[in-house]
Amino acid sequence: MSIKLQDISTRAPEHFDKKETREKTARILEELDGLQNLLFAESKHSLLIIFQGMDASGKDGAVKNVMGTLNPLGVKVRPFKAPTEEELAHDFLWRIHAHAPARGMIQVFNRSHYEDILITRVHKWCDDETAYKRMDAINNFERLLTDHNKTHILKFYLHISREEQSKRFEERRTDTAKHWKFNSNDYKEAELWDVYRQMYEDCFQHCNNPSWIVVPSDQNWYKEYTIASVLLDTLKGLNMKYPDLKK
Questions:
Q1: Exposed (0-12), middle (13-18) or buried (19+): which is 117, by Cβ within 10 Å?
Q2: Do β-strands 106-110 and 75-79 pair in parallel, antiparallel, or remain unpaired?
Q3: Pairwise CA distance, residues 217 & 225, whole Å
Q4: What CA–CA distance (Å, rounded) separates 188 from 171?
Q5: Which domain holds residue 126?
Q6: Is residue 242 assigned to a domain?
Q7: To 10 degrees, the CA torsion angle through 154, 215, 226, 73?
Q8: Which of these, 31, 64, 70, 231, is most buried using a 10 Å CB contact count?
C-alpha cells in the first residue's frame, strides 16, 4: 500500500463542526465504555492500539482523552522510549512482546516496535538490509498476535503539519504548564522532517497488514473523534456476547 503523506490533509474536512464533533465523540466514548466491559467479560479477543507520529503530534493527548475514559482495569498503556542496556542485549522485539495484550485486554503502545525501523534509519544506526529484515520480523510478530491470540491491531499515524509542530514546540517553551514537555533536542529532530516522512512511508508500504490509519491531527478534537470512531467500529465488529451464567 502506497501512502503519500503530502497528499493527505492534516486538518478536518471543512464540513466538520468542532462543537458537534466533540459532542459525537462524547457519545462514542460512552458507548466504548460498555463495549470495553463486554470485551473484558467475554475474554475471547484483545486489542492492541499503536500510536506513532512526529514529535508533538498528540500521542499523549490521544492516550489521555480517548483511552483515559475507559476502565483502567481493562486498559494498559506502555510508552516505549530509548531501549535500556538490558533491552539492547536482546532482539529488538523482546521488550515489545512482553507487553502484548492478554485476551480481554486493551493494550496501548505510545510509540512502539516501529521506532526500530524509523528513528534508527533516520540516524543511520540501522542499515536498509537490517531494517527490511526487521520489517519481516514485525509482520510475523503481528501475524502471530492476530492468529494465535485473536489480537486486533490498530495502527494510528498521527498526521500533523510542520507548521503545527512548530506551534506546539513554541507552546512547550513558553507555557509554564507545558515546560515539562520541552526538549531542546526536538528542534534538531524536526530538521530531519523530510527523512522521517520518507521512513514512515516506507514503513506504511512494507508493514501494511493490518493497514495504517492516517489521522489528521492538527486539530485535537478531530483526531480524538477519528480514533474513537475506529475503536467503536472495531469493537462492534467483534460481535461479542456476555458469557452465560455459570451453573
A1: buried
A2: parallel
A3: 10
A4: 17
A5: 5-236
A6: no
A7: 40
A8: 231
Does any domain span residue 246?
no
115's CB contacts (< 8 A; 6+ apart) are 80
Distance CA 103, CA 156 (A): 21
Q: Which three cell numbers stand for residue 151?
A: 489480537
CA–CA dist 195, 161 (Å, integer): 15
CATH number at residue 26: 3.40.50.300
Tell me, what amino acid is at 108? V
Number of domains in the chain: 1
Long-range contacts, stretch 88-91, CB < 8 angstroms, 24+ apart: 91/137
Cell 459532542 belongs to 23
Whether 118 is in a domain gets the answer yes
Q: What type of residue sits at position 79? A: P
Domain assignment present for 44: yes
pLDDT in tens, 49-84: 999 999 999 999 999 999 999 999 999 999 999 999
How far apart are alpha carbons 175 and 24 in whole angstroms? 30
Q: What are the tens digits of pLDDT across the range 80-109? A: 999 999 999 999 999 999 999 999 999 999
